[in-house]
Design brief:
single chain; 142 residues; alpha+beta; two-stranded antiparallel sheet; 2 helices; Immunity protein Imm1; DddI
Length: 142
């Protein structure tokens, strides 16, 4: 499942929030096309086949993972968080720095091509695990 927001052009005002199941590679491609629109926020992916876990501090039951996906200036960005670590892609060195609408920071060199982003999201859709088609590094490493 993917969730993202459209903004009123030139503002930070939310126009609409969207949620969609990505059931095929074609739907993943359409989703990445939507992320490339200038007034679209980053998205959060959640795989419904992954286990739920109980938060040890709040007692709330929720997902065991958090995947942030975005598109900026021709590059796709992904942060994959699970019970092991927070990871970002080792990307194209020419990809620019990007800050999400909630101020998450992706340093230069962490973006990938649209084709790689599509393949990565599709692999996650099929396997429900951290995609293996890219190299990952701990988010604190940049």
């Amino acid at each position: 499942m993917a969730t993202w927001t459209d903004f009123v052009p030139g503002t930070e005002w939310e126009r609409a929030t969207h949620e969609v199941e990505l059931a095929s590679r074609a739907e993943v491609r359409e989703f990445v096309d939507l992320l490339a629109w200038p007034n679209t926020s980053e998205a959060v992916l959640m795989h419904t086949a992954r286990p739920l876990r109980t938060n040890e501090f709040t007692g709330e039951v929720g997902s065991d993972h958090h995947v942030v996906v975005g598109f900026f200036k021709g590059f796709g960005y992904v942060e994959y968080t699970d019970t092991d670590q927070v990871s970002r892609i080792v990307g194209d060195l020419s990809s620019p720095e990007w800050r999400t609408t909630v101020s998450d920071h992706f340093p230069p060199g962490t973006g990938v091509s649209p084709a790689t982003l599509i393949a990565l999201i599709d692999e996650f859709r099929v396997t429900a695990t951290r995609p293996t088609i890219v190299q990952w590094r701990h988010a604190s490493a940049g």
